[in-house]
């Protein structure tokens, strides 16, 4: 396995697109101080993924920074490989390159690209990355690559052509399925959304807000059907059953128990995504509350 220097088995997934980069770095420093082992974030038309990684890595000391995911339609494969190797050389073991094919509406609207044959597109992209010459930076500086893998074929590709998978919006049973397909020698870094509130109505509201966009995307709809949900769960924002399946709602101990289920199912590392009342909510209050329940120091 390509090395990743996680200081703990639990990290954070947080999009700072609505925050200034200086404020995001301040939060990354406290996330590190709280004992979380990583900070992952997405790329969906906000901050550019590699620039943000450089800023967060430079502003922290041990925190692993991961793209969850960098959109392969946003830059060429040589550019991705060059940027990844450079970050890997500067911060050995602390950068994780998560890659994904994204979604047709975003690719066609924001990147003016065409979205077809995602599996073969990803395979060819990785092959082009592998062919990058050593003059960029030695291939030995290449950081771990994870794929946004939900279906069986993309999971298999994450094992054969990458270093593992980054499952997002999945149950612990899906984490177990991913581990079974990948075997013991690949990374599995699963995301778990949490709504720290003992008021069920508040928890459901936050969960439905989070799921609203995803519930309209074919990739996730197919994934949820494979995970045992049905068409009645795929309403806008998801059904209550889907919301409770995807989001850990309750106190810190309840959220920590959901994280443990992913770890027990075979995840090497779990990134918690705190859901607030809107996307601009500060995740730190909930992360401070959650850290002791997770056994972090």
UniProtKB/TrEMBL annotation:
SUPFAM superfamilies: Bacterial luciferase-like (SSF51679)
Short name of one Pfam family: Bac_luciferase
InterPro entries: F420-G6PD/mer, Lucif-like_OxRdatse_MSMEG_4141, Luciferase-like_dom, Luciferase-like_sf
Domain of life, source organism: Bacteria
Boundaries of every Luciferase-like domain copy: 10-268
Protein name, UniProt field: F420-dependent oxidoreductase
């Amino acid at each position: 396995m390509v090395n990743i220097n996680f200081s703990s088995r639990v990290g954070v997934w947080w999009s700072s697109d609505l925050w200034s980069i200086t404020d995001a770095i301040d939060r990354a420093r406290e996330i590190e101080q709280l004992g979380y082992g990583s900070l992952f974030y997405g790329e969906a038309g906000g901050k550019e993924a590699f620039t943000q990684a450089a800023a967060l890595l430079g502003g922290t000391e041990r925190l692993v920074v991961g793209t969850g995911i960098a959109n392969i339609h946003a830059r060429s494969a040589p550019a991705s490989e060059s940027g990844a190797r450079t970050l890997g050389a500067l911060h050995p073991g602390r950068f994780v390159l998560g890659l994904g094919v994204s979604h047709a509406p975003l690719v066609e609207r924001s990147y003016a690209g065409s979205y077809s044959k995602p599996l073969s597109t990803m395979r060819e992209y990785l092959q082009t990355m592998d062919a990058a010459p050593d003059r960029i930076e030695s291939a030995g500086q290449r950081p771990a690559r994870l794929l946004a893998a939900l279906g069986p074929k993309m999971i298999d590709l994450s094992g054969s052509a990458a270093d593992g998978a980054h499952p997002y919006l999945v149950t612990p049973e899906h984490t177990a399925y991913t581990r079974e397909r990948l075997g013991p020698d690949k990374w599995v870094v699963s995301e778990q959304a949490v709504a720290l509130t003992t008021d069920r109505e508040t928890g459901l509201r936050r969960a439905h807000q989070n799921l609203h966009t995803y519930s309209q995307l074919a990739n996730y709809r197919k994934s949820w059907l494979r995970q045992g949900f049905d068409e009645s769960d795929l309403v806008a924002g998801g059904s209550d059953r889907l919301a409770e399946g995807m989001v850990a709602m309750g106190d810190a101990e309840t959220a920590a128990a959901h994280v443990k289920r992913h770890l027990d199912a075979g995840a090497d590392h779990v990134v918690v995504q705190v859901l607030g009342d809107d996307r601009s909510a500060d995740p730190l209050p909930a992360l401070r509350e959650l850290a002791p329940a997770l056994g972090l120091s």
